[in-house]
Design a protein that fits this description.
- By secondary structure, the protein is mainly alpha-helical.
- The two termini are 29 Å apart.
Length: 158
C-alpha cells in the first residue's frame, strides 16, 4: 500500500480530484485546494483520507450505478472525518464529481501499470539494450513524466 500513496492512489487524491471536478462543473475558479494543517491531528482523522485506496477499490465502482454512490458516500464520510465535521464542501460533492475524479485516477493507474510492465519486460527481454543504470534512469524518467501529468490534471502545475 505504500506504493499506492507514492503513486497517488489514495482517498486524499480522490477527494481532491472530486473537489476539483465539483468546482469546474459549478463554473468556479480552479484554485488548488488549500492544505489542511495536519499538526496535532489525531491519527483517525489523518488516516481518513491519507489511507491508500483499498486493493480492489475498482470493484466498488464498476458499471453498477449504485456502487458509485457507495464509493461517493464513503469518500464524503472520510472527508468529514478529515475536516472534523461535515460541512458545505463535503456535502456539495456529487456522485458525478466522484466518478470524474475516479476516472482520472483509473487512467493514472493504468498508465503506471503499463510503465511498470514495460520496465519488467525490459529487464527480462532487454528491449532497450541499455546498460542497467541507463535502463533504470529511462524508466524512472517515464514514471516522473506520468506523475507530472497527474499534477497537471489536478491543476497543481501548468
Amino acid at each position: 500500500n505504500v506504493d499506492s500513496l507514492i503513486w497517488g492512489l489514495s482517498w486524499r487524491l480522490l477527494w481532491s480530484a472530486s473537489l476539483r471536478a465539483s468546482r469546474l462543473a459549478a463554473g468556479e475558479a480552479d484554485i488548488a485546494e488549500e492544505a489542511k494543517s495536519q499538526e496535532s491531528m489525531e491519527w483517525g482523522r489523518y488516516a481518513a483520507l491519507q489511507t491508500p485506496l483499498a486493493f480492489g477499490f475498482l470493484s466498488e465502482s464498476d458499471s453498477n450505478a449504485g456502487s458509485t454512490t457507495i464509493l461517493a458516500r464513503e469518500l464524503r464520510r472520510r472527508a468529514a472525518i478529515w475536516q472534523g465535521c461535515a460541512d458545505a464542501v463535503t456535502e456539495r460533492i456529487r456522485d458525478a464529481d466522484v466518478e470524474m475524479g475516479l476516472a482520472m485516477l483509473v487512467r493514472h493507474r493504468e498508465e503506471l501499470l503499463k510503465l511498470h510492465k514495460q520496465m519488467y519486460l525490459d529487464v527480462i527481454v532487454d528491449f532497450s539494450g541499455l546498460p542497467p543504470l541507463e535502463k533504470e534512469a529511462a524508466h524512472w524518467q517515464l514514471l516522473q513524466n506520468q506523475m507530472a501529468l497527474l499534477r497537471q490534471e489536478m491543476g497543481w502545475e501548468e
